[in-house]
Specification:
mainly beta, seven-stranded antiparallel β-sheet, globular
């Protein structure tokens, strides 16, 4: 985001999100990056997945693919996704829990519907974001951490219930390991509730999952996002009972290049990652070695 952090800016509505059909009617709405907001704090990529209904026998199949220079975060409202990676990790992500994968110098992972959910069918709905690592940490060894719902801070304010997924906010800190000041929150607001956004983070985003709310003079409905920067922010006001995602943090320490699944402050590093994937020099995903997504042409 651009702008003077010492001045409260008017929230900017993000429009023209790109829609991607991953098959079987599973639609992903890509909210970031866009021309108006290449990043919000360290968040350089934001996908709203679904909601979608998978009939029995069908499911999500994201074949093994690589990442560098970022951390991926999956947060589900409905459904289950099985994560496997080249570190040997195996974890099913369910609503309320966190899968945080730090790619750093390089990792490969797959995301699929587990066998039981594929057999029975399921409804799938969630968020996946990419968090750019600071320049000093872009080449850290890869890690994967799963955090159960019970381990995350739950915050109650007047008419609002919040889950602090990652980072710090409202005097609380998530146990999820992060590399730079940030916040990522799911908030449920009663109709008429007001919520002040965390003031310690100067770049902020709001994404409505359910309901309708006002943010300054901007009205946000379902599937809409707005971003804002400055020393302070307007208060959120729920016009109806609402479920929203709040995110942001400190400004990035420089621009990032994004190409396919790679994020880096260096174009040369991305070219190296492309060559490494084309030559299959990344590791294999344990238990999912037979398939992979080829380097895009």
């Amino acid at each position: 985001m651009a702008g003077d952090p010492n001045v409260q800016q008017r929230p900017t509505l993000i429009e023209n999100a790109r829609l991607h059909d991953l098959g079987d009617g599973f639609i992903v709405r890509r909210m970031l990056p866009v021309l108006l907001a290449r990043h919000v704090g360290p968040f350089v990529f934001y996908d709203h997945m679904g909601p979608a209904e998978f009939e029995p026998g069908r499911g999500m199949d994201v074949r093994p693919h690589p990442h560098i220079g970022l951390a991926t975060v999956t947060w589900l409202f409905e459904g289950t996704i099985r994560h496997r990676d080249s570190l040997g990790s195996l974890a099913d992500i369910t609503p309320g829990a966190v899968n945080w994968m730090t790619a750093g110098q390089g990792i490969v992972h797959s995301e699929r519907t587990p066998p039981d959910a594929r057999r029975d069918g399921q409804r799938m709905h969630g968020i996946q974001v990419w968090v750019a690592l600071p320049r000093a940490d872009e080449e850290v060894p890869p890690e994967f951490h799963h955090h159960d719902a019970e381990s995350l801070p739950h915050i109650r304010q007047n008419g609002a219930e919040l889950v602090l997924i990652a980072g710090t906010a409202y005097g609380e800190a998530s146990p999820v390991k992060v590399f730079a000041p940030m916040f990522f929150i799911e908030a449920r607001l009663e109709a008429g509730a007001e919520l002040a956004l965390p003031q310690e983070h100067v770049e902020r985003g709001v994404h409505v999952i359910e309901g309708e709310l006002g943010w300054g003079d901007v009205t946000l409905a379902v599937a809409q996002m707005a971003v804002q920067a400055g020393e302070s922010a307007p208060v959120l006001r729920a016009k109806t009972a609402s479920r929203v995602m709040l995110f942001g943090g400190a400004p990035l320490d420089g621009e990032r290049h994004l190409w396919w699944n790679f994020v880096s402050s260096s174009r040369e590093r991305i070219e190296q990652a492309k060559a490494d994937w084309a030559a299959q020099r990344f590791g294999k995903v344990a238990g999912d070695e037979q398939e992979f997504i080829p380097l895009p042409g």
